[in-house]
Amino acid sequence: MSRQADHETAFAFPILIGDIGGTNARFAVVDGPDAPDGAPVVVRTADFSTIDDAIKAIAEKRDGPAPRSAILAVAGPVNGDEIPLTNCPWVVRPKQLRSLGLADIVVLNDFEAQALAVVALGDEHMEKIGGGEPQEEAGKVVLGPGTGLGVAGLVYALGRWIPVPGEGGHMDIGPRTPRDFDVFPRIEHIDGRLSGEQILCGRGLVNVYRAVAETDGKPATMTTPAEVTAAALERRDPVAEEALSIFVTCLGRTAGDVALVFKSRGGVYLTGGIAQKIVPALKTGAFRAAFEDKAPHSALMRTMPVYVITHPLGALAGLAAYARTPFQFGVQTHGRRWR
To answer: Which HAMAP family does the UniProt entry name for this protein (predicted)?
Structure first.
């Protein structure tokens, strides 16, 4: 890439970076190309009426010069000058954010940031869940069950890593085993559809727990994913244990499907708090069995490594890497950059 192109791609420091999820928003400031990352600030989206208010509150508490640029990753598709989040009432209006002193604003999908994190983070932030060794410069995929289900690809071309955003969390998901055919009809559908996000996210885990309880005529006393997860991992509730087992199996199936799409010899990466909390369940073998059960390509699937990203703020690490050296990544900013 030419120096002129590098200049046009670069951002003015300090750069505000933000990972905006359905429940929490995580911010930090990158002060310079060689400066350490600023201390992250995590806020609940429910505590602020708008993202503008959240950024104002953070800026008021900051020591040092105000950010001149912003790179925000949001949980939802980025189309036009008004960007609603999928699982949060915030609407990002980049032109309006200029009133906060931000002269250059890029808005990405949140799972583009998660994909960038795969490149930015080292082995110390990865927990391996079977498979072989990743092939250098081969395709990768990222999945993250959280408030929703995020999915993204990462491909290497023309000397750069290119994140591929999408809405893969809304793909159909269906039953395979006799037990699935008993339980799945009782999982909440949306307009007649059962998508991955109805199972593979926090509320999805609760959906499955309730469906298992209803199928067996047992009471469903738990109402949060944290309760279900804890009860399952501590083996004190058979309904919760089965719900988590179904969750892990479906995550393996979906991860395997996406890995086939991208032929992900570079690895499959699970992100977010849920994946980090259920590592023991992911290591029981059910996940890998479902992931590899892709005849006629089971042998290929067995070679693909799967990792849980254990860094608590991986997306911010990915955004910080992009903020410092944007020319090393093939991020499409057309229609998503305001300056």
So the answer is: Glucokinase (MF_00524)
Does the annotation list 18 as a binding residue? yes
Are 18 and 70 members of one domain? yes
22 is in an annotated binding site: yes
Same domain, 192 and 293: yes
Average pLDDT for 310-325: 94
Q: What is the pLDDT of residues 114-127, one digit of tens each?
A: 999 999 999 999 99
Q: Check: pTM over 0.85? Answer yes or no.
A: yes
Residue 20 labeled ligand binder: yes
The verdict on 129 and 224 lying in the same domain is: yes
Domain span including residue 275 = 123-309
Give the DSSP H or E segment for 7: helix 3-9
The verdict on 150 and 278 lying in the same domain is: yes
Return the pLDDT at 8.
59
CA distances from 63 to 12, 66, 262, 307 (A): 18, 8, 44, 37
- Band of pLDDT at residue 110, cut at 50, 70 and 90: confident
Cα torsion at 32, 16, 26, 255 (round to 10°)?
Answer: -80
Check whether 54 has a pLDDT greater than 60: yes
**How many whole angstroms separate alpha carbon 279 and alpha carbon 293?**
20
Q: How many separate domains does the chain show?
A: 2
Instruction: Looking at the structure, tell me whether residues 174 and 259 fall in a common domain.
Output: yes
Helix (H) or strand (E) segment spanning residue 129: none
239: confidence class by pLDDT, cuts 50, 70, 90: very high
- Asked whether residue 287 falls in the same domain as residue 318, the answer is no
Is 19 flagged in the annotation as binding?
yes
Ligand-binding site membership of 221 (annotated): no
Answer yes or no: is 204 a known binding residue: no
What's the CATH code of the domain at 72?
A: 3.30.420.40
Checking if the pLDDT of 2 tops 70, the result is: no
Strand 140-145, strand 149-157: pairing: antiparallel
